[in-house]
Amino acid sequence: MKRRSFFSWGTAGLVALCSAISVSLGAVVRFLTPSVFYEPPQTFKIGNPADFSFGPPTFLAEEKIFVFRDREKGFAVANAVCTHLGCTVGYFQSDERFHCPCHGSVFGADGTVQHGPAPRPLEWFEVTLARDGKLRVDKDRVVPASYRLMVS
Ligand code: FES
Questions:
Q1: Residue 71 — pLDDT band, cuts 50, 70, 90?
Q2: Is the peptide bond before 117 cis (omega within 30 degrees of 0)?
Q3: Whose CA is nearest to atom 3 of ligand 1?
Q4: What is the pTM (predicted TM-score) of this model?
Q5: For residue 127, how many C-alpha atoms fall within 13 Å in the half-sphere facing its CB?
Q6: How many other β-carbons are positioned within 10 Å of the β-carbon of residue 32?
């Protein structure tokens, strides 16, 4: 074997060995790294009470909630996620109901199912007043549809 040929085969072997080691290290690092999914916080502030008008609910797209403000009844927060397969429902002031654009479920103003295939009513979340005067929603605390927060 010529000396030149030996070096080229040696170099190729070294490159193959380094590649195999780096691929193996990558697999080990991936195996040791936990598969974690980061969820947005379930408790968050949505603003001052005065930020919300009376009448039709305010839709907060990022949080996927509807904020209702009623002069006599106070604040209520409804989940905008359909209980069928998770599409975002819309609220129609014309018939005061929630409609899901995906498969046609219809929910009453209180979130009850009026037309399937949704299996369960929409959820309502607890809304409270934080110390700084802002409204705070807790998606981990589901409340009855009749729950209201009165703010003077
Ligand atoms: S996701 Fe709403 S009806 Fe299917």
A1: confident
A2: yes
A3: 103
A4: 0.73
A5: 28
A6: 7
Please report which confidence band the pLDDT of residue 22 belongs to, taking 50, 70 and 90 as the band edges.
confident
User: One-letter amino acid identity for 42?
Assistant: Q
Measure the CA–CA gap between 149 and 84, rounded to whole angstroms. Answer: 28
Counting atoms of ligand 1 from 1, which one is nearest the CA of 103?
3
Name the residue of 81, 82, 115, 123 whose CB sits within 8 Å of the most ligand 1 atoms, as the mutation to test its pocket: 82
Give the chain's count of helices (H) and strands (E). 1, 10
Compute the distance between CA of residue 75 and CA of residue 151 in angstroms, rounded to an integer.
8
Residue 7, pLDDT above cutoff 70: no
CA distance 63 to 42: 9
Identify which of 19, 150, 129 has the alpha carbon closest to the alpha carbon of residue 74: 150
Ligand 1 atom with minimal separation from the 86 CA: 1
> Quick one: 25 exposed, middle or buried, by C-beta within 10 A (0-12, 13-18, 19+)?
exposed
How many residues comprise the chain? Answer: 152
